[in-house]
TrEMBL record:
Pfam families: Nitroreductase
Boundaries of every Nitroreductase domain copy: 13-72, 74-157
Assigned keywords, A-Z: Oxidoreductase
The name this protein goes by in its record: Nitroreductase
Family of this protein: Belongs to the nitroreductase family.
Superkingdom of the organism of origin: Bacteria
Length: 182
């Protein structure tokens, strides 16, 4: 990488935004294949790959997933695709981290494919006063009880264009050199 030109990854990160508004255009088969391969290539601790990915494009199921939480999941109803990221905690004690890595890569792959995306936190979030969002998603998609649901990534053709976050908005005070506070 040269000193003046950003890497392809940095260029992608500079323009990427979370998108919650999508058009009704379906994904191409090439985009679906890209997302599937990226998910399966996600790094995992000790190479255990505890995750499972459920690719949902059925409108009725997307509508059900959109109701997973009282706030923050409604946009899934209009996504072309929702990828439910879940894992088996018996395979790896760091399944949460493994799912987070896969979720991040799905975002980046969606951006690279010209798509918008946004994630929904499911783990440890309520559906309502009596039920967890995780239990809701498990029942909607017939997910076995041994699997834990971490996130859902909504993906589609963006219905809005947002600029990337300005460099000035980055929290430079969160960077430290050698020791905290330096």
């Amino acid at each position: 990488m040269s000193e003046t030109a950003p890497s392809a990854l940095l260029a992608l990160l500079r323009q990427r935004r979370s998108v919650r508004s999508f058009t009704d255009q379906p994904l191409t088969e090439a985009q679906r294949q890209l997302l599937r391969e990226v998910a399966l290539r996600a790094p995992s601790s000790r190479g255990r790959s505890p995750w499972h990915f459920i690719f949902v494009e059925d409108r009725a199921l997307l509508g059900q997933l959109a109701q997973a939480k009282q706030q923050g999941s409604a946009f899934l109803a209009n996504a072309a695709l929702a990828v439910v990221v879940c894992a088996d905690p018996q395979i790896s004690d760091v399944w949460i981290e493994d799912c987070a890595l896969a979720t991040t890569l799905l975002h980046l792959a969606a951006s690279e494919a010209g798509l918008g995306s946004c994630w929904v936190q499911i783990r440890q979030r309520p559906h309502d006063a009596n039920r967890s969002a995780e239990s809701w998603v498990q029942s909607c998609l017939a997910i076995p009880p041994n699997l834990r649901v971490a996130t859902i990534v909504g993906i589609g053709w963006t219905g809005t264009t947002l600029p990337g976050h300005a460099a000035e908005s980055l929290a430079q005070e969160r960077l430290h050199q050698q020791r905290f506070g330096q």
